[in-house]
Each structure stands twice: as structure tokens, then as C-alpha cells.
Write a structure and sequence with these properties.
The protein has 252 residues and is an all-alpha fold. The protein has a single domain, classed as Cytochrome c oxidase, subunit III, four-helix bundle (Four Helix Bundle (Hemerythrin (Met), subunit A), Up-down Bundle). The chain is 67% helix and 2% strand. The protein is built from seven helices and two strands. The protein has a two-stranded antiparallel sheet with strand order 1-2. Strand 1 and strand 2 form a beta hairpin. The longest helix is centred in the N-terminal third of the chain and has 34 residues.
Length: 252
């Protein structure tokens, strides 16, 4: 009697060539409303799209946790120096902290950065849109890339506009005679805004890499991961700025 072998549903589906409107199991789109049928189902030991995305997000979270500790230390020093002062010749205590008028352009900069968070989120969601990704699997071009790229470019432009606005704010303060070493208050204003600006420059570089990845990377999952990590980093920088902006405007 010849031996018979039963095929599990997973084996049957894995041999599916994807012609019937469904790609092979190992090549399904990731995240953003897609199914998780195969994300954790890799008997060969390979990492699925969901695991890769989770690992990259975890790595980003660890890096941002370090940044958060740094900014907390900076803010703590800000409050400590508010009480700093010296005794004059008459032994009267004089505070070294002098109120600083925030340049009005910072309000515009904040609105620009918030708008950039919206554009990067739209780009990220386009890449995870299930219908667009399925069209690519079926060989109908790259609709997700075409829709996401303009929003990524807009985010880079808005981020650059924010940095230009910060430079204008520094120039306005310098024209008033308030430089990095003039007062304790101006010192921390330059330090806080410049530190955040450096982080935003790194974010713009990450967005540039993500934009290149849209056109250079062939695997859908890797394009999604690169843009997703860049987007969450950008969102974090927006949240950090809101916190720092409130600090500079309300606790002078």
C-alpha cells in the first residue's frame, strides 16, 4: 500500500504562487492594517516582517530613552540655574537670572514642526496601506511609493524651514546683544534650542535616507521599516520640542 502524506493548510498556502490575488505567505505586506497570519510563523528560523519591525522600533525606543534622559538633565540644570546669583558690595543677594523675551518666530516654528509631523505620518500610513502594497505584489507598479514620496519631501522641506526659523530667532537675539554667554537665561536658550536643532538635523538625514530607500530597496518590508523608524523619530522630536517650547515660554 503506497504511503500517503497529508498537507497542512500552511503547507498548501506556502506553495501558492500568489497568482490568485494573494502573494506567497512569506512575502505578505507588513503592519498598518495588514493581517498577521504569517508574521510569527517561520519554522525555518528566519525573522518575519513583524519581528523585524518590532526589533527596529525597540532599538529606536532605547535610543530615544537616552535622549530623554539627556533633555531631563538639561531641564533640571535650567531650573537649578534660575536660583543662581551673587552678593553685591553691600552684601545684597542679586539674581543672575534675567527674564528673556522669546522671539515671536518660535510660535511659527512650532506650527511648522507640528505640520511636518502630520506630513510624515501621512507618508508612513501610505506605505502601510494594504491595497497599495497588494497592487505592488501583483506587479501593478509601486502606488504606495508614489503616494508616500511627496509627503516625505514635504516633511524634509518643513523640517528645513523650522531650522531656518531657529537661525532667525538666534540672529534676532544676537542683534539685541543677547549671545550665548551674555546671561544665564540666554545661555540656556541657545543651549536648549541648538541641542534640539542638532537632533532635528539627524532627523532630516534619516528622512533623506528613507526617501532614497523608497526607490532603492526592492523589498516592501524594508521600505516600510526604514520609513516607520524615521517617522517615529520625527514624532519624538516634535514632542520634545513642544515640551522645550513650553519650558522656554512659561518658566522664564
Amino acid at each position: 500500500m503506497p504511503a500517503t502524506f497529508s498537507r497542512t493548510p500552511t503547507d498548501i498556502e506556502r506553495k501558492d504562487t500568489g497568482i490568485g490575488g494573494k502573494p506567497p505567505v512569506d512575502r505578505r505586506p507588513t503592519g498598518g492594517g495588514g493581517g498577521d497570519d504569517n508574521w510569527d510563523n517561520h519554522p525555518s528560523g528566519r525573522r518575519g516582517p513583524r519581528e523585524l519591525l518590532t526589533r527596529y522600533r525597540l532599538g529606536l525606543s532605547c535610543a530615544l530613552a537616552g535622549d530623554l534622559i539627556f533633555f531631563i538633565a538639561l531641564v533640571s540644570a535650567f531650573f537649578v540655574h534660575q536660583t543662581a546669583g551673587h552678593f553685591d558690595l553691600r552684601e545684597n543677594y542679586v539674581s543672575d537670572w534675567h527674564p528673556l523675551t522669546i522671539p515671536p518666530i518660535l510660535w511659527i516654528n512650532t506650527a511648522v514642526l507640528l505640520l511636518s509631523s502630520l506630513t510624515i505620518e501621512i507618508a508612513r500610513r501610505h506605505l502601510f496601506h494594504e491595497v497599495d502594497v497588494m497592487e505592488e505584489w501583483l506587479g501593478l507598479g509601486r502606488p504606495a511609493v508614489r503616494r508616500a514620496a511627496p509627503w516625505l519631501i514635504a516633511t524634509v522641506a518643513l523640517g528645513s524651514l523650522f531650522l531656518a526659523g531657529q537661525w532667525i530667532a538666534w540672529s534676532q537675539l544676537a542683534s539685541e546683544g543677547l549671545t550665548f554667554t551674555t546671561t544665564q537665561n540666554s545661555h540656556f536658550f541657545y543651549l536648549i534650542t541648538a541641542t534640539h536643532g542638532i537632533h532635528l538635523v539627524l532627523g532630516i538625514l534619516a528622512l533623506g535616507i528613507a526617501l532614497c530607500a523608497l526607490f532603492l530597496l526592492r523589498r516592501v518590508q524594508m521600505r516600510q521599516i526604514v520609513v516607520d523608524v524615521a517617522a517615529w523619530y520625527w514624532h519624538a522630536m516634535g514632542i520634545f520640542w513642544i515640551f522645550l517650547f513650553v519650558l522656554l515660554t512659561c518658566f522664564q
